[in-house]
Amino acid sequence: MMNQIIRKIVSICLVVFSMGSVFGKTPVFHYVKITTDKGVCLLKLYNETPKHRDNFVRLVSDGYYDSLLFHRVIAQFMVQGGDPDSRYAAEKQALGNGGPDYTIPAEIQEGLIHKKGTIGAARDDNPAKQSSASQFYLVQGRVFTEAGLDSIEQIRLKGKKLTAAQRQAYTTVGGTPHLDGNYTVFGELLSGLETIDRIAEVRTDERDRPVSNVRMSMVVLSRREALNLEREAAGLPPKNGFFTKIADLFSSQKY
């Protein structure tokens, strides 16, 4: 009798283990939901910039960004946040210098450009172009004509030519081409471009700080949420059935 019970327990354990192997896949990307006073955004983080990706995921998971302000807003350019001093900032208080006591090495890559909806890491004028550990900006920018991009090449980029991909993006979606090559871009919005537009249109003071506070909160999507998002993007139904839920009990929702 005891041997039969042991065999059943072993069989159940093997089934659970095999379910975990089947269902315990890892998403391709990390995703962050950004909730603001002006709407919600869904952000995909690039794997090509792992130092920025992992740092951002850690800070979001720790609740670092919750209740922080978008403290610098410039229409047709970008909306910036991530200064921890903004959480309890007084009216008209100067912001933009707060953050952890470390920087992130630059991960600037030619193919990751400042098209509308991308997230970039803010920085000071350090020669290595190292990024602030917490401050970021979401690109609004504007749509350019071909002639406008020619002017950007000559004046802002000092003769450097834009690629065909850059020209395609900046004449359709829009963005801020003069930032390319100078700041690390580490992700892009999958939804919520209209949220950037709403934030960018608020009234600001002489320091580009919104007169009425615009706050944020963030959460990293769980492993299952990310997997289902990627399934839906591939035209497949999400997995939320009984066996999936059982298997998820034995798999970390972090990845």
TrEMBL record:
* Keyword Magnesium applies: no
Among CDD domains, the record links this protein to: cyclophilin
Domain PPIase cyclophilin-type intervals: 28-221
Please name the SUPFAM superfamilies in this protein's record: Cyclophilin-like
Asked whether the UniProt record includes Isomerase among its keywords, one would answer: yes
* E.C. code: 5.2.1.8
Which domain of life, per UniProt? Answer: Bacteria
InterPro entries hit by this protein: Cyclophilin-like_dom_sf, Cyclophilin-type_PPIase_CS, Cyclophilin-type_PPIase_dom, Cyclophilin_A-like
Stated family: Belongs to the cyclophilin-type PPIase family.
Q: What is this protein's record name?
A: peptidylprolyl isomerase
